[in-house]
Design brief:
- The protein is an alpha/beta fold and 377 residues long.
- 43% of the residues lie in helices and 7% in strands.
- Strand 6 (357-359) and strand 7 form a beta hairpin.
- It is built from 15 helices and seven strands.
- The protein has helices at 25-30, 38-54, 70-82, 101-111, 124-138, 142-160, 171-174, 222-228, 244-253, 263-266, 280-291, 295-305, 311-321, 327-337, 341-350; strands at residues 62-65, 87-92, 117-120, 164-167, 231-234, 357-359, 365-367.
- It folds into two domains: 36-238, Rossmann fold; 259-367, no CATH class.
């Protein structure tokens, strides 16, 4: 397990490759920000806006997928207030027994800023079955919900004949996840991001779930998107500063309700992540067991790249908080899915990567490799 020599990203992230100097793709991208032609980027963005305005439908120039969180709040305000466009917001919401009060408040807060919004609500019974299926099959209950989230936007764009879609970060640039098949602003192949796996929901057709039940989990085919003339654009490409901290602060100024939970209970040091529900923290804990990193690593790496934190300052934060999740959250998650605590830990243990983890004398899983130290494979 090797760490980037500039930040603290490990090479265990899926679809990542360090350069010959041991630098991750995200740090490579960050190193180019000060030499990019931002005037040229602005020109490209305005040309994209012209496309949206020229192809507006029902009075809307574009569609933005939102949750009401920090990123989507900043995007919506930027597109309307800076680009002077009229966006239609699309929110794929969690079922009522999963969405948090904070999440409901935040999407309401965004809507109250004067945005028309379409709320997409997949059937809760199918949603829950899909979560359970993903938990067992992939050790990732979010795999199906992310399909629904990313599918709802292009499906609505096709139905409403609004061809321009704005998304936030390009994972290939911001995270170094090279499976996204884009190194710029073009997001038309975003369905190839790691967990979306091409947008094919056929693996969900089990336990009585049929093809008609997973329409909102089925990403449009390339041919369908081409016929509709869809253009999916990553806004982060056009912003010199895109980070969780900046997005969170701007959104908070505009009413975003953030977390005040202790870092040891949610594996988070900023409190601006995953505000619409609580069980993503459970998934982050399992992700940590699979790949040796989770949310705190990503937050620390951003702060290092922006020069707001030194590498040696980030190591103890990762060691102390990354992958942490309270027993209460695990218990609530198990109650929702109807499984026992013992069964949950059996599955979580089965997905723990034994190549990078080992049990200590107390029976707890610990990383074999010190954070930040490079080791030859």
């Amino acid at each position: 397990m090797n760490y980037c020599t500039q930040c603290l990203q490990p090479d265990t992230r899926p679809n990542i490759k360090f350069n010959a100097q041991g630098v991750c793709p995200a740090c490579e991208y960050w190193s180019t920000l000060n030499v990019m032609d931002w005037d040229e980027k602005r020109k490209i963005l305005l040309e994209i806006c012209d496309f949206g305005i020229a192809h507006k439908s029902w009075g809307y120039d574009c569609i933005i997928g939102v949750s009401g969180g920090k990123d989507s709040t900043r995007q919506a305000l930027f597109v309307r207030n800076v680009l002077k466009m009229n966006p239609l917001l699309v929110c794929c919401t969690y079922p009522p027994d999963q969405v948090s009060d904070r999440g409901a408040y935040n999407i309401q807060n965004l809507i109250s800023r004067g945005f028309n919004t379409v709320i997409v609500g997949p059937a809760p019974q199918t949603w829950k079955k899909n979560m359970l299926n993903g938990f067992y099959k992939y050790g990732n209950w979010q795999r199906s919900t992310e399909l629904a989230l990313f599918t709802s936007v292009p499906r609505l764009a096709i139905a409403y004949q609004i061809p321009l879609i704005f998304w936030g970060e390009n994972p290939a640039l911001i995270l170094g996840e090279l499976g996204v098949r884009s190194n710029g602003y073009d997001g038309n192949q975003m369905k190839w991001a790691n967990t979306l796996a091409g947008g094919d929901p056929s693996w969900l057709c089990v336990d009585g779930i049929t093809k008609k039940d997973v329409l909102c989990y089925s990403y449009p085919a390339d041919e369908e998107m081409t016929r509709a003339g869809l253009r999916i654009i990553y806004l982060s490409y056009f912003w010199k500063v895109w980070s969780r901290l900046e997005n969170g602060m701007l959104a908070a100024v505009h009413g975003l309700d953030v977390r005040d939970d202790h870092s040891e209970t949610i594996g988070d040091i900023l409190g601006v992540e995953a505000l619409d529900e609580d069980w993503i923290t459970v998934n982050q804990m399992i992700k940590f067991r699979k790949f040796g990193f989770a949310r705190v690593t990503e937050l620390v790496c951003e702060e290092i790249r922006f020069g707001r934190m030194k590498r040696e300052e980030g190591i103890p934060l990762i060691e102390k908080y990354d992958g942490k999740c309270s027993d209460k959250l695990v218990g609530n998650f198990c109650d929702y899915l109807g499984i026992s605590i013992e069964e949950f830990w059996r599955v979580a243990d089965s997905y723990t990567n034994k190549e990078i983890f080992e049990k200590d004398k107390k029976g707890s899983w610990k990383l074999k490799y010190p954070v930040g130290v490079c080791h030859a494979r």
